[in-house]
């Protein structure tokens, strides 16, 4: 756990001079719209007040010196040798540098110390915070003049080509473009977005961190991306104008039911439904209707668990706790899946009771001490000092 001040201090302790640049890169939550981003769909994430802080200075050695304060690791990498390592956090950072290099920018040596208060593996996208903080740093240092959307696209490309994860753009986009006190509705087809207030009167959004993140997540994610592409390919055989699952109607999903494999049918059904649910969520939030908001969350959970198969027993348990609690309107797993947090909409006066009841039962069942993650919605990445 590090604050901006302690990251700056650790930078001085590691490198012996004061940083030239300090950056805050937030994590994100997602209200609804899960696994729709890589299907050109709709998502409703927001940047949160849990972030990674980067302190950065220049060196004359053509080397990137990284000090990962939260995990007490250090790596020095020559700018002549920007290739993937087996260290995931390092690859997220190197991949960004490599993208700028590939575009023809002349990179210079940097000293980088980073740390923060963003939990790893909790489904709040510490990886996007790593990428977006670093992308903003290079944009500044190189005076590259890229917009926030361009930086999000660059970070996504880096995930695809350098890190090897075919992710959508939601996490990077939310980390960079977040708007204080709002979520943002992103149309992942054209990357237009607008700020949406998500507070519901008399209620609170509650995140419970299961403190588990299962190994399966990465390979399962890659499988889901492929299965969605398979569905699109088949639909295109009769509807060539279809570009992605965003263009596919529920009727078409049913029309192709006997041609899809059983698994691909369920994946397509989930994604097509999730786009509709995201639109319905905007309406429900606009009406301030907690019952409707909660129902949509529950429907997404069922879809993610049964059709998309990205839940896990720990999350199913936390969901069941939420489902049976009288103060909870709805709940679901948040993020890519296989662990991390549940997101629930809870009556204000019942929140403490829900949190303690659910976490106690969870501890009894799994022997794991989950915790509440209290967040607020903030602006996207910022340069704190330069
Ligand atoms: C991960 C990916 C995102 C998105 C979510 C699921 O967080 O990085 O692009 O696909 O999973 O909604």
Describe this entry's structure for a reader.
With about 375 residues, the protein is α+β, with helices and mostly antiparallel strands. The chain folds into 2 domains: about 5-195 and about 380-385, Ribosomal Protein S5, domain 2 (2-Layer Sandwich), CATH 3.30.230; about 205-375, GHMP kinase, C-terminal domain (Alpha-Beta Plaits, 2-Layer Sandwich), CATH 3.30.70. The chain is built from 11 helices and 13 strands. The chain has helices spanning about 5-15, 90-100, 125-140, 150-165, 170-175, 215-235, 250-255, 260-285, 290-305, 315-325, 350-365; strands spanning about 20-30, 40-45, 45-60, 65-70, 75-80, 110-115, 185, 190-195, 205-215, 330-335, 340-345, 370-375, 380-385. Strands 5-4-6-3-1-13 form a 6-stranded mixed β-sheet, sandwiched between helices. It has a 4-stranded antiparallel β-sheet with strand order 10-11-9-12. The chain has a 3-stranded antiparallel β-sheet with strand order 2-7-8, sandwiched between helices. Helix 2 crosses helix 4 (about 150-165). The protein is globular and about 60 Å long. The model has no long low-confidence stretch (mean pLDDT about 95). The protein binds alpha-D-galactopyranose.
Keywords:
Alpha-Beta Plaits; Ribosomal Protein S5, domain 2; binds alpha-D-galactopyranose; 386 residues; 2 domains; alpha+beta
């Amino acid at each position: 756990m590090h604050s901006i001040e302690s990251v700056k201090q650790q930078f001085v302790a590691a490198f012996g001079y004061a940083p030239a640049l300090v950056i805050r890169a937030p994590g994100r939550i997602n209200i609804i719209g899960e696994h729709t981003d890589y299907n050109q769909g709709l998502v409703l994430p927001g940047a949160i007040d849990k972030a990674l802080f980067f302190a950065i200075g220049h060196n004359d050695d053509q080397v990137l010196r990284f000090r990962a304060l939260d995990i007490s690791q250090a790596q020095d990498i020559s700018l002549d040798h920007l290739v993937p390592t087996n260290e995931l956090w390092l690859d997220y950072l190197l991949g960004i540098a490599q993208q700028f290099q590939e575009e023809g920018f002349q990179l210079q040596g940097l000293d980088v110390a980073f740390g923060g208060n963003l939990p790893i593996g909790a489904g709040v996208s510490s990886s996007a915070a790593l990428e977006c903080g670093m992308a903003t740093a290079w944009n500044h240092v190189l005076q590259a003049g890229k917009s926030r959307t361009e930086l999000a696209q660059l970070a996504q490309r880096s995930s695809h080509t350098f890190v090897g994860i075919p992710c959508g753009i939601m996490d990077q986009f939310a980390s960079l473009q977040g708007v204080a006190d709002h979520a943002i509705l992103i149309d992942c087809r054209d990357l237009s977005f607008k700020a949406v207030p998500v507070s519901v009167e008399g209620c609170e959004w509650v995140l419970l961190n299961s403190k588990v993140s299962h190994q399966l997540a990465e390979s399962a994610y890659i499988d889901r991306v492929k299965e969605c592409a398979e569905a699109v390919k088949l639909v295109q055989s009769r509807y060539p104008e279809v570009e992605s699952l965003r263009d596919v109607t529920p009727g078409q999903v049913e029309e192709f039911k006997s041609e899809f494999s059983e698994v691909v049918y369920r994946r397509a059904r989930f994604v097509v439904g999730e786009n509709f649910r995201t639109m319905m969520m905007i309406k429900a939030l606009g009406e301030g209707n907690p019952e409707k908001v909660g129902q949509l969350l529950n429907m997404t959970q069922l879809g993610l668990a049964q059709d998309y198969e990205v839940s896990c027993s720990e999350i199913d348990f936390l969901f069941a706790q939420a489902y049976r609690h009288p103060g909870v309107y709805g709940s679901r797993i948040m993020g890519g899946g296989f662990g991390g947090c549940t997101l629930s909409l809870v009556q204000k006066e019942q929140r403490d009771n829900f949190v303690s009841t659910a976490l106690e039962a969870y501890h009894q069942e799994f022997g794991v001490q989950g915790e509440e993650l209290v967040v607020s919605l903030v602006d996207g990445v910022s340069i704190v000092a330069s």
